[in-house]
Amino acid sequence: MISTALLFGILGTLAIAAKGTAARARMTTVEIRTTTKTITKKTIS
Questions:
Q1: Helix 22-44, helix 2-19: angle, nearest 10
Q2: What is the tally of structural domains in the chain?
C-alpha cells in the first residue's frame, strides 16, 4: 500500500513536470488523487 502510493506520487510528479503548464499540472494532480483513491478502495475491499 505505502510503496504503491509512493510510486503514484513519483509518477504524478514526473507527469506534472513533463506537462509543464499549471492548468494541466492541476488536472494531472486530480487524476492521480482519484486513481489512488480508487485503487485504495479496491485494495481495502
A1: 160
A2: 1
- 19-31 pLDDT, tens per residue? 666 566 677 778 8
Task: Compute how many other C-beta atoms are within 10 angstroms of the C-beta atom of residue 5.
Answer: 12
Q: Given CA atoms 35, 10, 5, 25 in this order, what sign does their dihedral have? A: negative
Question: Coil, strand, or helix at residue 10?
Answer: helix
Question: Hunting for cell 514526473 — which residue is that?
Answer: 14
Low-confidence ranges of the chain (pLDDT < 70): 1, 18-25, 45
3-state SS of 1-45 is CHHHHHHHHHHHHHHHHHHCCHHHHHHHHHHHHHHHHHHHHHHHC
